[in-house]
From TrEMBL:
<dbReference type="InterPro" id="IPR002121">
    <property type="entry name" value="HRDC_dom"/>
</dbReference>
<protein>
    <recommendedName>
        <fullName>Exosome complex component 10</fullName>
    </recommendedName>
</protein>
<dbReference type="GO" id="GO:0071038">
    <property type="term" value="P:TRAMP-dependent tRNA surveillance pathway"/>
</dbReference>
<keyword id="KW-0378">Hydrolase</keyword>
<dbReference type="GO" id="GO:0071039">
    <property type="term" value="P:nuclear polyadenylation-dependent CUT catabolic process"/>
</dbReference>
<dbReference type="Pfam" id="PF01612">
    <property type="entry name" value="DNA_pol_A_exo1"/>
</dbReference>
<dbReference type="InterPro" id="IPR012588">
    <property type="entry name" value="Exosome-assoc_fac_Rrp6_N"/>
</dbReference>
<feature type="region of interest" description="Disordered">
    <location>
        <begin position="658"/>
        <end position="732"/>
    </location>
</feature>
<keyword id="KW-1017">Isopeptide bond</keyword>
<keyword id="KW-0479">Metal-binding</keyword>
<dbReference type="GO" id="GO:0019219">
    <property type="term" value="P:regulation of nucleobase-containing compound metabolic process"/>
</dbReference>
<keyword id="KW-0460">Magnesium</keyword>
<keyword id="KW-0963">Cytoplasm</keyword>
<dbReference type="GO" id="GO:0000175">
    <property type="term" value="F:3'-5'-RNA exonuclease activity"/>
</dbReference>
<keyword id="KW-0698">rRNA processing</keyword>
<keyword id="KW-0269">Exonuclease</keyword>
<dbReference type="InterPro" id="IPR002562">
    <property type="entry name" value="3'-5'_exonuclease_dom"/>
</dbReference>
Length: 795
């Protein structure tokens, strides 16, 4: 790097930056190489086709030799064996691969040593002192004009004392819903429920406060609904926007940051004084800095508050249990609280401090209403204030104490200009809507909806792992899915106990690799993790037992998108004795599948509510096997599986049931036919006897025609009454029958139109005229238009 620096240049050259920032330029080189390799023919038919051309074959050989030469030089530079190109000494491809792996291990080990030295850790000299004995080393990158080099300083700090150890109240990581921490309600229009006004604890003193309150309320069955409700729900629902807030303001220019008074608040007296100042204002800006890597629920580390005249930074780690004092100013409806992207801030304030916000204005919602190019605070600072914010500290470790000056300046920037941006966006919202307050009112309404948000604590259920598993978009068998479920439960349980994030305990990509590989030994679990998390190294034996438990599951492929089991896996046809032969995992699967249809009709909120209530009923439910493991249909064709045997039994049972049903149907049909025959035989004999008696009693010389079968059917209609033997003989009236043969002779057609005697063709023509809307009907052949109009309805 010294050779690349020129004395004439005050800034480093490209070569110098490449030498000083190897990661930045190395990553670009790796990405370009990866993209180029993706364009090469893939192994298989395509590669074999291109390989048939001599030019392609020569090109591949030359490039391969060049790559092997570069690799051998790198290995030689690091003192490794570099006989990759020697065909005599290394004849096999596997030996070459092993040589490359060994060289990578040596290089990565040296890189780790150098990184530890950059962090201030020297393995060869004194060991690292325990947490709390060494001040953290925090430095940020900056340009040194004198030496014309970049100095590197790290944003994270090792050996930082965990702030959770100093908290007066223990953090509640229990698997229970979140209960609001508020016990005093300033600016209340509706008083706080009685269950929240007192801080009396039940007799369960060895459990977290929220869990103890929940147990107490469940025992007494009092105020259960009020316990989880938003404390300021009534005030926010009845909050009306003042007219002055809907009028066009005059933007008040901000002061330069160097001329603005700054105060760092870390004592109770200063916090009380700040609250008195805020209560006298009409608006102030608020922002938070959060840390989530070394805590299960997360920690709010800083609160920035800016007025028109001053900037404040509150050490919320030091004043965590006293922050509720600010509720007097935060819930005052006459004071506007300006946030940017307050969705997470509102939840963090409730979770850590019991703070609630009334009369909120979110500049992020205003930016969306104005359809700006971007909606981040960085863009608003550039757009309205021409200020470039340094986002290098956005993911910094805000637990560091004392804070470096660079991080203090970044924290002040988030709120120092926010009140001026608030004025500017209000003006643009009114101008955008032609001075009408409708658009501005919609921003106020959306901001109020954000204030109504409630913090929801992550609740573990037996199906929690499925949401994460679906995101991986990988097909797993029963063993792999069981390992994933067990590792997920172990990670969640340990993270709650140690108050660490799940990413710190076991990152998701490492959990996926362990689930897919299913190592047979503890060393295999360590090999799947790079770098190895500390808690994984401590409890590797427990993880090994979980993996062994998953390997004992029957190896069946799990279908990705199926929910129900069909065919022989229908549990309605299997007995409990057959289920006893299966493993507990498959028994649970088959029994729980029947409830899927009922669950489909429920919404997502109802499903989550049901899972939470079930977790209350059985606290050990999180260790039960899952519901959504599905058995492959192809398992019934595997003679070595129990599913194959049970499927045969189900088939035989289904065939026997079908045969029995067919026989029952045949018997029922035969009985019905016999009953019908008996009924018809009795009816015909009665009819024939009556008719014979009628002929005897009638006149001798009068003859009647023999009725046909159709006449017999028409005579059997219910409206026709049969003649009794005592009645006198009456001839059959054929004019009432349905047969046209006995309709009699037709009279001649008259010239007058008769609608009762129109033929079928004429009816079709009339219907077509009705559809087309033609009422004249004069085009009908052989029909009188005059007669038709006379008889046609007026409508």
């Amino acid at each position: 790097s010294r050779k690349c620096v020129s004395r004439k240049h005050k800034q480093p050259t490209v070569e110098t930056r490449a030498a000083l920032f190897p990661l930045q330029y190395g990553l670009g080189a790796v990405l370009s190489a990866t993209k180029a390799s993706a364009g090469l023919p893939q192994a298989g038919d395509e590669y074999d086709f291109y390989r048939s051309f001599p030019g392609f074959q020569e090109f591949c050989e030359s490039q391969g030799d060049g790559l092997l030469h570069c690799m051998s030089q790198i290995m030689q530079h690091h003192g490794c064996r570099s006989h990759v190109r020697d065909q005599n000494k290394l004849t096999g491809l596997e030996e070459r691969f092993d040589l490359v792996v060994d060289s990578n291990d040596v290089i990565l080990e040296r890189a780790g040593i150098l990184l530890d030295e950059a962090d201030g850790v020297n393995r060869n000299q004194q060991p690292v002192m325990p947490a709390g004995f060494q001040p953290p080393k925090i430095v940020v990158s900056s340009w040194n004009r004198k030496s014309q080099f970049w100095t590197f300083r790290l944003l994270h700090a090792k050996n930082v004392t965990r702030p959770q150890l100093k908290f007066k109240e223990r953090i509640d990581n229990s698997n229970t819903p979140f209960i609001p921490k508020i016990f005093i309600k300033p600016n209340a229009r509706k008083p706080l429920p009685a269950c929240k006004t007192s801080r009396e604890r039940p007799e369960d003193l060895d459990v977290p406060a929220a869990l103890a309150d929940l147990i107490h309320q469940q025992r007494t069955q009092e105020h259960v609904d009020d316990m989880f409700a938003h404390p300021y729900q009534y005030e926010l629902d009845h909050l009306s926007t003042q007219e002055k807030l809907l009028s066009k303001p005059e933007p008040q220019m901000y002061k330069p940051m160097a001329e603005t008074k700054f105060s760092f608040i870390d004592s109770l007296e200063d916090l009380v004084a700040l609250n008195e100042k805020l209560c006298k204002l009409s608006e102030f800006a608020v922002d938070l800095e959060h840390h989530s890597y070394r805590s299960f629920l997360g920690l709010t580390c800083l609160m920035q508050i800016s007025t028109r005249e001053e900037d404040f930074i509150i050490d919320t780690l030091e004043l965590r249990s006293e922050m509720y004092i600010l509720n007097e100013a935060f819930t005052d409806p006459s004071i506007v609280k300006v946030f940017h992207g307050a969705d997470s801030d509102i939840e963090w304030l409730q979770r850590d401090f019991g703070l609630y916000v009334v009369n909120l204005f979110d500049t992020h919602q205003a930016s969306r209403a104005l359809n700006l190019a971007r909606h981040s605070l960085d863009h608003l600072l550039k757009h309205f204030c021409s200020v470039d914010s340094d986002k290098r500290y956005q993911l910094a470790d805000w637990r560091i104490r004392p804070l470096p000056d660079e991080m203090v300046q970044y924290a002040r920037t988030d709120t120092h200009y926010l009140l001026y941006i608030y004025d500017c966006v209000k003006v643009q919202l009114l101008d955008f809507n032609h001075s009408q307050p409708g658009l501005l009112q919609s921003v106020w309404n959306k901001s109020k909806d954000i204030s109504l948000k409630k913090y929801v604590k992550p609740i573990y259920t037996e199906e929690s792992y499925l949401e994460l598993q679906r995101k991986q978009k990988k097909s797993l068998n029963t063993q792999q899915l069981t390992a994933f479920r067990l590792l997920f439960a172990w990670r969640d349980k340990l993270a709650r106990q140690e108050d660490e994030s799940t990413g710190f305990v076991l990152p998701t990509h490492m959990m996926n690799k362990i689930s897919e590989e299913l190592p047979k030994e503890p060393q295999g679990i360590i090999a799947c993790c790079n770098p190895v998390p500390p808690l994984v190294r401590q409890q590797v034996n427990e993880l090994h037992l979980l993996v062994q438990q998953a390997r004992e599951m029957p190896l069946l492929k799990v279908r990705k998108h199926e929910v129900m089991l069909f065919g022989p896996h229908d549990t309605s046809r299997v007995s409990e004795s057959d289920l006893l032969h299966l493993s507990p995992e498959l028994c649970f699967i088959l029994k729980e599948v029947e409830t899927k249809d009922a669950q489909k009709s429920l919404s997502v909120a109802q499903m989550k509510a049901r899972q939470i209530t079930e977790s209350f009923q059985n606290p050990f439910r999180m260790y039960l096997p899952s519901k959504d493991v599905h058995v492959n249909k192809n398992a019934k064709f595997d003679p070595s599986s129990k599913i194959f045997e049970i499927s045969k039994r189900w088939k035989l049972q289904s065939i026997e049931q079908q045969q029995k049903e067919m026989e029952a149907k045949k018997k029922a049909k035969e009985e019905a036919k016999e009953q019908a025959r008996k009924a018809t035989g009795n009816g015909e004999s009665a009819k024939s006897g009556g008719k014979k008696r009628e002929r005897v009693d009638g006149e001798v010389g009068e003859l009647t025609p023999k009725p046909s079968k159709k006449l017999m059917k028409s005579a059997e209609k219910p409206q026709k009454t049969e003649a009794t033997p005592q009645e006198s003989f009456k001839p059959f009236d054929y004019s009432q029958s349905d047969l046209k043969v006995f309709a009699g002779t037709k009279s001649k057609d008259s010239t007058q139109f008769d609608p009762n005697r129109q033929d079928e063709g004429f009816k079709k023509k009339v219907f077509a005229c009705l559809i087309s809307g033609n009422r004249s009907m004069s085009f009908l052949a052989g029909k009188s238009d005059r007669g038709f109009r006379h008889n046609w309805p007026k409508r």
